[in-house]
Amino acid sequence: MADRKPLFGFRDIHVEVEGKEVVNGVSLEICPGEIHAIMGPNGSGKSSLSNALMGHPGYAIAKGEAYLDEHNLLKLSADERSRAGLFLAFQYPLAIPGVTVANFMRTAVKSHRGKDADMSDFRKSFFKEMEDLSIDRSFATRYLNEGFSGGEKKRVEILQMAMLNPKIALLDETDSGLDIDALKTVSDGINRFHSDNNGILLVTHYQRLLNYVRPHHVHVMMHGRFVKAGGPDLALQLEEKGYDWIEQEMREEAEA
Prior knowledge:
This protein has 256 residues and is an alpha/beta fold. It has a single domain, classed as Rossmann fold. 36% of the residues lie in helices and 28% in strands. The chain has eight helices and twelve strands. The strands form three sheets. Strands 6-9-10-3-11-12 form a six-stranded mixed sheet, sandwiched between helices. Strands 2-1-4-5 form a four-stranded antiparallel sheet, with helices on one face. A two-stranded antiparallel ribbon has the order 7-8. Helix 4 (122-132) crosses helix 5 (150-164).
């Protein structure tokens, strides 16, 4: 896959939150079919990077460039980035009282397809994806994420991803708050979505998600920048040793 043209990428990205730089010049490319994982401790800038790339107004990209296919993402609003094929599964999905799961999904899909799109297949595909994710049909008429458990919220996020079928999925700590059964179900949904035509960027603290969704590349983020990269074995090292050994390597390199 290394010789294929990148589908998505960003170069020298700097992100500021309330005037403070939280991401300091990171770069990455994802080719079609690739799964990348960003791992790092709390406060390393992982979620800030994901939110900024999606166009969250609270996360300003002060410098750098990002693209998806032929689209310059930084010139697009958040909804335009979504329609271009970028998807973000939130670490903490918000509840939307008064909007049912079914109506939310239908509106999102119609927005992507266009106002005159044929939606005759929506109901069939919607309930099929719900079944695959072990989401009871009764959730279709419940208000989005209102009173949902952590696992139920994350399953609905993956349901939305499946319905929108983006080119690139940014999954921000999708394993957070999941018990082992929910983790397996959500991971199965991610693996069903993944194909040779799309790409995935997983953001996670822990290696456990990567037992089920195997990345091709792992990037370690600390202090707002990427400090180490490798394959799946790097995630296993982090699980075993934590992040202190990387901090030690950085100190030794700085002193050399």
